[in-house]
């Protein structure tokens, strides 16, 4: 498989994004971020902006603000601690930045999300009773990132599977498919991050075949797992039942990390109504704090 310059750039930019995501509460130096991509500081930031449409600083700021939006919607924390977590030293500075990003101040955003059409609550009859708590080992995976609307993630799967088969790493019948989903489609629209993952074969070469795919890992730990049956465009209902209802009612706290989707069958040979997807949310053992 012949590598392309475009694919190599994609791989390098993804490494930089992953570094920022893993250290979102820290201030990384421009040199550190450029080094993670294996590029000189002189050119890296232009490459990053050209390929993602935003600067590294803008990317970091957006992720922090989107995390703040989720916290406003899903918790009763005061605005000031949320602002501090997002890297703002005052309520006023956070309000200006948040209003610019979401069109309304934080307090208004919270009240809008609490309106009946947005409220994340459920009655006992609508809360899932088939959630299981399971200890899962870490899994080494091959990762290809999608950046865009959630309803177009099939495009990244086409690319990842084609790369896997062309590289001779296994047959299509043995594909074990996961996804790491750090963003919420209700908060992040056009720049939603979605990492399509294939379980890495046991005999994976030290040097990956050429292409945009990188190594990654599905974290191990104790997960709350809910099985969803039906088309992928209804997954949001199961997310809501698990994270918005089951977790609060059981007194557990979801870990602040990507949700794992594990696809038990394939849309290539399964009717939409019969698709089976496990939603894994790791339980934060320390609780709130």
Give me a quick take on this structure.
By secondary structure, the chain is of the alpha+beta class. The chain has helices spanning 5-22, 30-36, 41-52, 56-74, 79-85, 91-102, 106-113, 154-166, 235-250, and strands spanning 132-136, 139-147, 177-181, 193-199, 214-218, 221-229, 259-263, 276-282. It is globular and about 55 Å long.
Rg from alpha-carbon coordinates: 20 Å
Number of helices: 9
The largest β sheet comes out as: 8 strands, antiparallel
End-to-end separation in angstroms reads 49 Å
Helicity range: 25-40%
Give the beta-strand count: 8
Low-pLDDT residue spans:
119-125
Instruction: Categorize the overall geometry.
Output: globular
Q: By helix and strand content, what is the structural category?
A: alpha+beta
Q: N-to-C SSE series? A: HHHHHHHEEHEEEEHEE
For the largest sheet, list the strands in their spatial order: 1-6-8-7-3-4-2-5
Q: Overall pLDDT, averaged?
A: 87
Beta-strand content bin = 15-25%
Structure in words:
The protein has an 8-stranded antiparallel β-sheet with strand order 1-6-8-7-3-4-2-5, with helices on both faces. It is globular, with a radius of gyration of 20 Å. Helix 4 (56-74) packs antiparallel against helix 5 (79-85). Residues 119-125 have low confidence and may be disordered. It contains 9 helices and 8 strands. With 289 residues, the protein is of the alpha+beta class. The termini are far apart.
């Amino acid at each position: 498989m012949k590598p392309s310059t475009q694919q190599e750039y994609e791989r390098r930019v993804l490494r930089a994004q992953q570094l920022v995501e893993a250290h979102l509460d820290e201030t990384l130096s421009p040199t550190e971020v450029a080094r993670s991509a294996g590029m000189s500081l002189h050119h890296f930031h232009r490459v990053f902006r050209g390929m993602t449409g935003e600067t590294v600083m803008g990317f970091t700021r957006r992720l922090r603000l989107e995390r703040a939006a989720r916290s406003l919607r899903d918790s009763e924390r005061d605005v000031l601690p949320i602002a501090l977590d997002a890297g703002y030293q005052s309520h006023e500075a956070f309000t200006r930045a948040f209003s610019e990003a979401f069109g309304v101040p934080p307090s208004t955003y919270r009240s809008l999300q609490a309106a009946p059409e947005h409220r994340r609550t459920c009655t006992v009859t609508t809360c899932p009773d088939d959630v299981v708590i399971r200890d899962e080992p870490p899994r080494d995976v091959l990762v290809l990132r999608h950046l865009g609307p959630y309803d177009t993630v099939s495009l990244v799967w086409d690319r990842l599977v084609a790369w896997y088969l062309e590289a001779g790493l296994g047959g299509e019948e043995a594909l074990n498919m996961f996804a790491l989903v750090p963003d919420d489609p209700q908060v992040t629209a056009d720049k939603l991050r979605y990492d399509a993952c294939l379980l890495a074969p046991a005999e994976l070469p030290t040097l990956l075949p050429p292409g945009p795919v990188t190594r990654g890992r599905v974290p191990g730990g104790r997960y709350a797992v809910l099985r969803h049956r039906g088309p992928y465009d209804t997954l949001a209902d199961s997310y809501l039942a698990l994270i918005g209802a089951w977790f609060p009612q059981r007194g557990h706290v979801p870990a602040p990390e990507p949700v794992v989707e594990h696809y038990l069958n394939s849309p290539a040979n399964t009717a939409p109504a019969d698709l089976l997807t496990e939603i894994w949310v790791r339980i934060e053992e320390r609780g709130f704090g």
